[in-house]
Structure formats: C-alpha cells, structure tokens
Amino acid sequence: MFRNITVGQAMFGAAVTSLIMGGFVVVSRFGVSNLTSAADLTFFRYLSGLILLPVFLKRPIRNLGGIGWWRGIVIMILAGWCFNLVMMSGFKYAPAAHGAIFTPGTLPMFTALYSYFLFKERLSIGRITGLMVLMGGLVTLGWGGLIESSPDAWKGDLLFLAASACWAAFTVSIRYWNIDPVYGVSVVAVLSLVCFTPIYIFYFGSPFLDLPIGGIVLQLIYQGVFVGVIAVVLFTICIPVIGPARTALFMALVPVFGTLLGALILDEVPGTIEFGGIVLVIFGMLAAMGMRLQRSKS
Length: 298
Known about the structure:
Oligomer: single chain
Distance between the termini: 16 Å
Low-confidence stretches: 291-298
Structural class: mainly alpha
Strand content: under 5%
Order of helices and strands: HHHHHHHHHHHHHHHH
Number of strands: 0
Shape: globular
Mean pLDDT: 80
Number of helices: 16
C-alpha cells in the first residue's frame, strides 16, 4: 500500500507531517499545562487504533501480518504509548521550545546515526555541515525558551531526547524490517490502545469523560486523527521512498511551523533572532539532504 508514490509526493507528505506536528507541539503544551495530563493526551492519541482497526484486521493476527509479534511489540514500544507518554511528560518540566528542539529537532541526528550503522549510509561533509547548520538554527529558534527555563527543565529535556531516540529507531525499523508503512502504523496504534487503556483507567484514574467537552473534542480530533493517523501514516509511507534519514530531516521543520502557528494562534510573534533561526533550519535541512533526493533501495 502506497509503495508507488513518487519522490515529490513523499516530500510533500513529509512536509505536511511536519506542519501537523508543529501544531501538535502547540496543542500538547496547552493541554498538559491547562487541561489534561500526559496520560490523557496519550490515551487520546491512541484512540486512533479504533480508526485503524480495519487495516489491522485485514492481515492474520497469528503472526501479526507477517511482521511477527516480537517485532510488533518492539515498534509499539518505540512509537506507541510508551514513547508518547515519555514525550508528553517532558512538557510538565520544560517549555514548548525545548520540546520542539529536543524531540523533532534531534530526530535527524539520531536517524542518521542509526542509518550509518544499519544501512552503511555514510555522511558526506556537505550533509554533516547541513546537520550542524540545522542544529544551530534550532537552538537559535528556541533560544528564548532555552535561557528562560525552569530549574527542572533538564528533566523534560532528557525525556524529549529519549522520545527522539525511540522515534528514530522506529523510523529505521520500518525500512530495516521492510514493514508495510500503513500496516505498521495500525499495529502500533491498535496494540497501544489495547495495552494502554486498562493502564490509563485503573492506574491514572482520570477517565477523559471527566474533562471539559471542548478540550475532549479538540484533543480527540488533533491527537487521535491528525497526529495518530494522518501524520504518522504520511511519515511512514515516505520512509521507503526517500529513506529514513531524509524523511527524519523534515521533522526539523516542526519548530519552524510551531513558531509560525504560535504566532497565528497564540499571538506569539517571533522576533528577528527567531526568524534567523527559521532561515538557518531551512538551509541546513536542504544541505543535509544533499539538495538531491533519490528513491532509496531497500
């Protein structure tokens, strides 16, 4: 499924994913700070398992559609409820700027490292330079949040880094194990829903029905549909086409979109330094991609 998309379509899909995830940073920070807990947001996200259940049931459950149960459990841990709960918990300690830098911002670095060891994808001087420029742009973009952080912000930063390392491992696993992207997403979503629902109800003791209806609707639609289904599916179908390392590079645009959406939605207009960071991120991403995309060979 979706294996015949072009490089251009894959690039567009990855860009749309980064746009959705840019809004995800804003919505998640608002939710954890003002409305819901990290557990609530994780439960909202993996209600997407209900939407993806038909895809999951199209293949035999006995061997998990040929993936195998141990591989299915691994990708669920890397990209499922464990990953999301770790990342959402980071927002309790650190500001949104940290989340944008330390999770999607470091994803290209972790993915490039994994790809080097698994696929022997060597980094040229140009790509290394691009990654350095990209990282400099991310630090510049989030400078305000970095210098005005709370004493406990380092705890959130470590959680964000752990989440980034997990998602990068999921990204390369899709290609390394040659998993159908859409089916792989359905496995993560359905297994997360089945595993996390009893934990959420009995351990966290905060069923979402106790929350304000407006917040429920917003989080269900954004976390469950836009992030849990659309963004993750778009992201994973790009991996076999442009490769895990280059797909991950698009996630560096998340803080860029997050900043722009924050200006539009929250009236938080970025200053000159932040705009400079945006420019550096874009040029760094293009340099790290080698300005040239070829269909990856599995």
